[in-house]
Structures
1.
Amino acid sequence: MTTRDIPLPGSSAAPGNRGRFAFPWSGQNAAVQRKRTVLLVEDEPSIAEPLAEAIAREGFETEVAGTVAESLALAAELEPDLVLLDVMLPDGSGFDVCRELRRRSQVPIIMLTARGEEADRVVGLELGADDYVVKPFSAREVVARIRAVLRRTEPSPGRDEAKPIEIGELRLDPAKREVTKDGDVLELSRKEFELLQLLMQNAGSVVTREQAFEDVWDTNWFGSTKTLDVHVSGLRRKLGDDSSEPRFLHTVRGVGFRFASPDEL
Ligand code: CA
């Protein structure tokens, strides 16, 4: 099945051009600089179509999927740079898509959640989504969020040059975005990696909960602080740390967390 064979629900786009919203000069542009691709998973055409057009106007290649099945097929085919993901889809839940995408890749994901569904936002973030926007949203707001998430998630030249940090048997390599323990690679989610990087960079000092939120999530995150604790316990489990007597990741009650410095171990 190719992209073009996938019907877009409610779309009036010409056959052979379904779901694609791009500038006519995108071909030339691609030769100079690869356009970044955004996969928009949204079954409601009155939301999907204007949003896809707005994102395309900002210089992104945009593809639309209206179901869980389509979104997974398109994600595998396109390897998009970012996924915008609706929660309620005709054949299932956006959370299942989020979980499945995370199993395959670290592609940045922004959930499109319904107003008042606080639980949805927390579930999405805990499944590894990078951010969320609440409906009804303006296209401008979504585009701003796309740029913010891409800025945070794309390795910057400075980060590429960052030296590996070694603490005990742990080694975090920022350039490779890889953590090893005794040489074995630990499977960390993006957020777990970023949180661990922040903690290891500040080894021996306290990182406050606020700092962690600002650095790893972003300032527009006012949701449940449970997310941070979920990530901390996930990290402890993967590091082999005992939460009642941690070796690496210590809780500083009421303040935040502190990673052991190399000479403490
Ligand atoms: Ca929907």
Note: The radius of gyration is 20 Å.
2.
Amino acid sequence: PVVLGIESSCDETGAGLVRDGHLLGHAVASSMDEHARFGGVVPEIAARAHVHSFTPVVREALDRAGLRMGDIGAVAVTTGPGLSGALQVGLAGAKTLAFSLGVPLYGVHHLAGHVAADTLEHGPLPDPCMVLIVSGGHTSLLLVRDLARDPILHLGDTIDDAAGECFDKVARVFGLPYPGGPAIDRTARQGDPDAVAFPRPLTGPRDPRYDFSFSGLKTAAARWAEQHRLRDEELPLADGAASLQEAVADVLTRKAVAACREHGVGTLVVVGGVAANSRVRALAEERCRAAGIALRVPPLKLCTDNGAMIAAVGDLLVRAGAEPTPLDVSIDPSAPLEYAALHPVARA
Ligand code: ATP
Ligand code: MG
Ligand code: FE
């Protein structure tokens, strides 16, 4: 069947249509610009924007796929984690569609969606694979087996800020526009990545191997900017951005490749908004090639939040014969990542 995926956990309203692992069409509306003057996502504004965008986005995804409402055979929806009000809008819409069309509903974990995004471009994920999720809210290393059936093994996480959050906050200090990640990436192009010796947090021999920390890096970047300002010097922004980006990319890829090696895993998948970063991509390629590890990174459009990735998880669940999620399901804003689905398929 055709699976409609709905995503509304943060500031993107996404709808995507997937059948048998193939993306038929998707659409995304973002309220990013409405949050820009606040320097971060305002939950109330995000929720209201989802109410506004839900129907047009579903309509547009259907149009792009050349499908009609009646072609939808199942609905998958993000139930968490994310902003409570934002999640509720998507879930209410998804329930209404499933109920009125008489098709099953599948509650999906947002991060599993990020993982599954890559299957739409590169086909089924090998079992096992290592996944580095790097986004505005998460920095995690996961050992993934069968998304529809197996628990996801959480190897490590950030102990403070997420990598995307670090980019966003430093960009603000540097006076770059929101969202900061793409702005840092652009600015870094003219800079020298070795200009500033920013720290490489949690990479010492006694540090946890798979955990991350980015708040110290953020502070170091702020202090560097402050020192220039105190001396009334113009900020060498390009050098600062390039050096910060280098430090983040270095730590992320070093730990991800080590995790692959230590667990004997031959494939690394890098997903989430920060996977769009040009230096993260380049360094991951270089280090994976040197270590004989296959690297998979979804195309930019599927890296950031979208409905297609949620549909991809729903499609895997449908094909694995998963139990649908009851229509009285609620959102879970801080859902732990144990399984991709609220109702995974039992292992025989
Ligand atoms: P989560 O998925 O954890 O709930 P989110 O929805 O904010 O969080 P995404 O939409 O996946 O995350 O990604 C947004 C983040 O990606 C932002 O922090 C943004 O700055 C960052 N980002 C996007 N493009 C780039 C880039 N080229 N370089 C660095 N960071 C980037
Ligand atoms: Mg977002
Ligand atoms: Fe996300």
Note: The first strand starts at residue 2 and ends at 7.
